[in-house]
């Protein structure tokens, strides 16, 4: 097992994690540049060879990314929490679900999820982080929050042996972040040594100078003793007033019938740079690494975790399209302009007006008819290169087919099909893109599971929490509120819960669909509108 206290060994672990994923990360960077760089949709060699010639980008890739990411952004990823052990009730699960919603709303998690989803569709990988922070500077109360991790491709690396879709089996993970040399020296009282981002090339020359600092997430194992009594009650040595509970059982004549030791994992975090550790190891409230990756087209093959986004499958078609249309424009621009051919005798006396032929608005132009000479005729002008035109059209079609996007899904309805036909074409497209929804569901479910396991450690005292419902209604709930009779309202119970995440239409879309359904029923039975008019309004 690695020595997590040895700085050099940890740096080597980071380098190994970077090397194992280097090929996929490099492709992910290319995909991001493909849709954001001014010349990103050309192969560098061909782009340089065509210097001085048309090198245009007719970006059809970003539109496909926007369509898939837009559908994800319009969806509602709802989390359902249910009790899965006798220690928790449906009411406890409702309280837990309200707290998860409150954390997401306070963190603006929807925007974070959507931003990560767009990057995941583009490059195949992105993610976010769960953090514990103090509510403000003048209190000891803490909150959980979901925060974005910008530039995930260059900054986050998991255990090279991990294969689980959300890194659940990872022994450790790294998150890199950059701080200026001046800030580093002021904070740590020495010059910083930057950690490598393991990039083959830099996309942009003009960048701020920073020191890359790493956060090392790893597990610390703790032994917990469990004692089973003959009334089926279990006591652990990590409970508050553990000794008093044990003594109370014995005084009540309740016998201890079994005991065992289990291993409890606690996530620790420690900062470091290329030279040394920057602080001491800190225990967190998490029992899983709070970095949540989102992988598109995830699979394990040849003992390697693989992923890719939609852009990787569209690169070749888009490059050929850019080249063929640019070449077509070049040929049209360089072709001789269309001209009239006539003899000098035919033009005699009309030279002035014939020279202004291209700009004249005169309805009649004159020339001299000479017997035995052919009348003036046109020659030259640009000719359409049918091979390039066909190639360009084929690339447009191939891009849609490669992406699994049919014309109806892109707002194109040349055949003016019926609404049912359009819906069927859209359903075919959904079949090809639903995997991106599934990736988002898995990551959000993992987020909720980590929150559920951590909430009892943070929200153990009585406090007020604001929750905004899907219908935008704001409510305040008082958790762990003790009543005069000794009962507790909205109690946060540390127990086992089942977490499910499912994607469906957003609340506004569901409203629109409901209104449409009511109106359609009303066309058949007008009395239905009269009975439900207040609901419709």
Can you describe what's shown?
This protein is of the alpha+beta class and 537 residues long. Helix content is 41%, strand content 22%. The chain has helices at 7-20, 22-36, 44-49, 61-74, 90-107, 109-123, 152-155, 181-188, 242-251, 315-334, 344-347, 351-355, 386-403, 419-458, 507-524, 526-531, 533-536; strands at residues 75-83, 125-134, 142-148, 156-158, 172-179, 211-229, 234-236, 256-272, 282-283, 291-295, 299-301, 304-306, 339-341, 377-379, 463-468, 474-479, 481-482, 488-489, 497-505. The strands form seven sheets. Strands 4, 5, 6, 7, 8 and 9 form a six-stranded antiparallel beta sheet that branches. Strands 3-2-10 form a three-stranded antiparallel beta sheet. A hairpin with a 4-residue loop joins β6 and β7 (234-236). α4 (61-74) runs antiparallel to α6 (109-123), α5 (90-107) crosses α14 (419-458) and α10 runs antiparallel to α13. The longest helix has 40 residues, at 419-458. The chain is elongated, with a radius of gyration of 33 Å. The protein starts with 6 loop residues before the first helix and ends with a helix. The model has no long low-confidence stretch (mean pLDDT 85).
